[in-house]
Amino acid sequence: MSRRCLPITVSAWVLAIFALGVGTSSCGDGPSKALSTSATEEPAGSSPERGSATYRDAGGETDASSDIRKVVVSSDEAALLSFKVTLAAHPDRHTTVLVYLDTDRNAATGASTALGADYQLAASELSQTDATFSLRRWNGRTFVDVSSVYPNVELRGRVVTLGFANADRIAKSFRWAVATRRRPTVTLDRAPDPGQPPLSFESGGSSAKLSVARVRLAPRRPSAGDTLTASIALKAGGHVDLMNSIEDFACSARVGPRSLEALDSSGIYGVEGAANGELRCVWRIPPAAGGKSLEGAIEVTFRRKPLSQNFSTPITP
């Protein structure tokens, strides 16, 4: 994944299935030099904020378009993590806003110059119509884009909101810090200030659950040589985007000792952003299978939890 230029005047979040892969570099200009702290700087016994937290930064530390005044970090029941960064003035096109996430809470394992951050959110070239935005992961040398992720940025006046969905797949508890800078690597402001420990945050926890209906067969009484479709209706609770919360699915069927291979038309069907969808598994029944039984199973993995439905049907000659 290279540069992603997204419209930012709308409030709808652009989401996609989250996979922790590695792509090519885009925002952030290589290794960050924005923050330098150590693991020992976090106060002993400090507890992370949960669900939503606000940090207010001192003003007048740099020019107004890059001066951080307030940061609100929050996560909802669908594990949508967002950082709302309020600047002293409207940011210009040369200002980059960076969020660093130390997801294992260990400064020794991430970027040593960025509080040990394992992930970086970067928003640059900000305007009222578009921006360049990325979610990036530390690979031991630099931050590289996480593939198959569609984070979002929104600019409203002097408030820049950065975020991405399904954040609980990375970590539910982490340390964080925000910085502004000018290219290539000139840091303008930091929150918290240099010399202060990064802040801690814990998501409120996702209440998302998946309801799986009984298997429906088409045709209801399959015959030898038919194409059989087994489907299950899916419904996610907690205002969750179903299509972006399903991580995997599996279709298996057998006639006696013979396993059947699912056809390419098998898959998840639904609309992005909706809570409802359908998993369809499709097989071609062997012509010589008349009088036998077909045993099948459909499995879907939703937020790391596998759910399955089994079924059995006789095959008419």
Q: Helical amount among residues, as a percent range? A: under 10%
Proportion of β residues?
Answer: 35-45%
Succession of helices and strands: EEEEEEEEEEEEEEEEEEEEEEE
Distance between the termini: 51 Å
Q: What is the residue-averaged pLDDT?
A: 79
Low-pLDDT parts are 1-46
Main pleated sheet: 9 strands, mixed
Rg over C-alpha atoms, rounded to the nearest angstrom: 24 Å
Got a strand count?
Answer: 23
What is the number of helical segments per DSSP (H or I, 4+ residues)? 0
The general outline is elongated
| Domain count | 2
From the helix content, strand content and strand pairing, which structural class follows?
mainly beta
Account of the protein in words:
The protein is mostly beta strands. It has two domains: 198 residues, no CATH class; 105 residues, Immunoglobulins (Immunoglobulin-like). The protein contains no helices and 23 strands. Strands 1, 2, 6, 7, 8, 9, 12, 13 and 14 form a nine-stranded mixed sheet that branches.
Tell me the layout of helices and strands.
Elements: E1 5-6, E2 49-50, E3 52-56, E4 68-75, E5 81-87, E6 95-102, E7 119-124, E8 131-138, E9 143-145, E10 152-156, E11 159-164, E12 173-182, E13 186-191, E14 199-202, E15 210-212, E16 216-218, E17 227-236, E18 246-255, E19 258-260, E20 267-270, E21 276-284, E22 293-302, E23 305-314
Parallel strand pairs: 2-14
Antiparallel strand pairs: 1-8, 3-4, 4-5, 5-11, 6-7, 6-12, 7-8, 8-9, 10-11, 12-13, 12-14, 15-17, 16-17, 17-21, 18-19, 18-22, 20-21, 22-23
